[in-house]
Amino acid sequence: MESATMTFQIDGRTRELEFSEDLPFNRLMETIKRSVDDPSLSITRIKLNGEDITGKSWDRFAHFTLGDIKDLQVETGDIRQIARKTLNSLKDFTTNLVAELKRTAELFRLGDEVQGSEALDRTLDGIQLVNHTSIIIDKNLDLEARSPVDNGQTLTAQMINLESIIEDLFAAQKDQDWILMADLIDYELVPHFNDRNNLFRGWEERTDA
After folding, report:
1. H or E segment at 20?
2. How far lies 138's CA from each of 28, 143, 144, 160, 200, in Å?
3. Domain 3-77 is of which CATH architecture?
4. Could you tell me if 52 and 43 are in contact, meaning their C-beta atoms sit under 8 angstroms apart?
5. Domain definitions of the chain by residue range
6. Most CB atoms closer than 10 Å: which of 102, 191, 200, 202?
C-alpha cells in the first residue's frame, strides 16, 4: 500500500502524519486521536472540508480516503470537564422543560388542542435533547448507567419508563383524549423529569467526590 503525508490542524497547530492512501476515515481519526500529546485530552470538535461534523454520524464519510480530505481541523479538550459543565446546563434546561410541560398540560386541560399540540411538539424536541445529552454525559464521565444512584434510580430505568409514558401519550393523542393527555403530562412526564434532575444531582455528587 502506498502512503502519503497528510497535513491537518489540531488546536490551531499544523501537524503532519503519514497514512496509507486508502485508509478509511474512521481509522484515520483513530490514528489522529492516538497522536494527541496529552492522554487526558479527547477530540471535542472536528471540521472536515469546512463542515463541522462534531457529533455527527461518519457513515457518509466511510468511503473517504486521503485524497478526499482537503481540510481537516481538530480541537481537543478535557472531556470530563466539558461534561461537568454540560451537566450543570442540562439541569437548568430540564427545569425549564418541566415548566413548559406544565404549560402544555394546562392548554390541553383548557381544550386548546391546537396550541397544546404545538407546545407538545416543542417539549418532545426538548425531551429528545435531554435524553441524548444524558447518554453522552453518562459515557464521558464514566458513570455506569445501571449503577444505582439516588434511591436506586438509574438512567437506564428512567429511559425505559419514559418510553412507556410517551407511548401512552401518543395513544391518547390519537384518540383525541385531551384530558388524558393533560393527566399524562402532569402526573407522569413532570414527575419523570423532576426525577431526572434528581439523578443529575446524584451524578454531580459522584463527580465532585
Report:
1. strand 13-20
2. 26, 5, 7, 16, 10
3. Roll (3.10)
4. no
5. 3-77, 80-208
6. 200
